[in-house]
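cron nightly-structures :: item 1 of 1
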Amino acid sequence: MNDVTEPVSATLAERAKLALGKRNLVFIGLMGAGKSAIGRLTAQALGVPFIDSDHEIERVSRMTISELFAAYGEEEFRALEARVLKRLLRSGPRVVSTGGGAYINERSRRQIKKGGVTVWLNAELDVLWERVSKRDTRPLLKTENPKQTLENLMRARYPIYAEADLTVLSRDVRKEMIVEEVLTAIADRQKAQSHD
């Protein structure tokens, strides 16, 4: 892969920024979909702050996500996640990447829908597996058959992720291409709404 990064078209970024207004852009999707990497680059293109909700949860709790899961269980973790997201989405515009389960939690999903425009980074199983199998930091994948667990998560979560405002296919291409598709989707959504 070529490491030379081509900047995203400034006019496209301006159109997307105008379409967003003061709303937040919230990335949702399964672990390994690229929410943090694509979110960070999208925020740079838009000239707005980027926040990774998992990093924010770790910062306020002074524990890693894995430690939180181990110490308190998933239910308590989701309650903390919902509180952190509510605070993060209070003001905008900013780009927020969320943990894979955030949008599945009904309370968090309501806050995310209210607090911004959602982009689902939709990825195929093989793409996700290739990305997540390299690191041992995913509490939900600490199972006997992690690839099967990932596939089960896809089956359970994809119908809920499909409620997102926008869907962009995450695949193995230059990150800038995905960012450009995200910005185009935001700008085109605004155009479509203004013609309704």
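cron nightly-structures :: done
Confidence is low (pLDDT under 50) at residues 1-5.
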